[in-house]
Amino acid sequence: MNPARSTAVGPSQSQGPNAALIADVARLIVDVPDFPKPGIVFKDLTPVLADPRAFAGVIDWFADLALNDPAGGISAVVGIESRGFLLGAPLGLRLGVPLLPVRKAGKLPRAVLTESYELEYGSATLALHADALPTGGPVLIVDDVLATGGTAAAAAALVSRAGGTVTGVAVLLELAALGGRRRLAPCHVHALLAT
Ligand code: AMP
Predict the structure, then answer these.
(1) Exposed/middle/buried for 174, CB within 10 Å: 0-12, 13-18, 19+?
(2) Which atom of ligand 1 is nearest to the CA of 149?
(3) Class of the CATH domain delimited by 11-194
(4) Model confidence over 138-194: pLDDT tens digits?
(5) Which of 14, 53, 67, 180 has its CA 20 to 30 A from that of 106?
């Protein structure tokens, strides 16, 4: 991973060029208490996907990040299953670079690299096709929500093992209190919204 330059566009910076987009996305996200289990407030982003103007603005924001990447442009987008696919696919198309899916164990059909990480209860395993990055290069990891950072850290480890360089992790929403950004340091973390 690269040296840190963390950027969070949260409510405190809401007067900037993205203020209208941030306000739109914040209004559209629905908090669902006790889903998928008691005590979790699930951030439902499907209303953002259902609003073409907001969705396009979100993809523009991700694309600006990638185009202004300190590495001088990225060579691939990694989308994390499953909501990371919904953001990563239009972004990869917009940038004209490959979309590489990081999937849950057992879903990718060819030889894979795997990384396991701890959840609150138990563990999870993510996989990336072993030949996904034949020429390496700078990679942007995309997901919807950054919480503890375990998922993104596992994806970053997979990219590194496959020969890529993680230039950043970009999310729509960062749950800042859960410390994912610290866990990913020194990787650059970009969040459109932070709570
Ligand atoms: P973490 O590994 O703790 O950073 O969790 C991030 C992953 O879990 C992402 O793929 C998110 O889609 C999902 N996630 C975690 N917490 C939430 C939440 N409160 N609402 C929606 N998705 C979440």
Answers:
(1) buried
(2) 4
(3) alpha beta
(4) 999 999 999 999 999 999 999 999 999 999 999 999 999 999 999 999 999 999 999
(5) 180
